[in-house]
Amino acid sequence: MIHRRLMLHLTGLGLLALTGAGAARAQVDVKAILDDPEAPVGGDPKGDVTIVAFLDYNCPFCKKATPELDAMARRDGHVRLVYKDWPILSQTSVHGAKLALAAGYQGRYGAAHAALMAMSGRRRAEDDMTQAVAAAGVDMTRLQADLDAHDAEITALLKRNGEQAEALGLQGTPVFLVGPYKIAQPLDRDGFAKVVAQVRAGARR
User: Fewer Cβ within 10 Å of end Cβ, the chain: N or C?
Assistant: First the structure.
């Protein structure tokens, strides 16, 4: 089910106030969610619709939805994707998130992300995740160097993602924020396309 929440209203301070059940206990900075400079961005960076995706690499529903979301963004051509690695299911989720984010320093976040999401099963071992990223063509020597050099930045980003999810009242993964819509279950590419079309229609009114 797609929950249409005019779940926020924008104020002159650039803040977002959630309303309704599960509302945040405090205001959330919209820019921090949409434009964190450390958060990976896919699709069209200048797209007219932004989708923020809170995901865990051990979440089977994330694995189902992510390729559909990415395919929709490629087909549309004007959707901006913001990936929020939110590793909440196990310690191996943290390992996977760190691998993907470290791969980003060599411009390979997308490849690592897709490889991890393509892994079958739940709670895969850390070695399995590492091997999947290596098989995707990521330079693992450089990745390890980036993990070591940028551990503080990666850890801080994961903390910010978690704080944003908590402030937004999110209960688990996946969650996709698309304009005034919150989607808390996997959709296929046509389902995502319908939500994007609704956001664009609303913007024209």
Answer: C
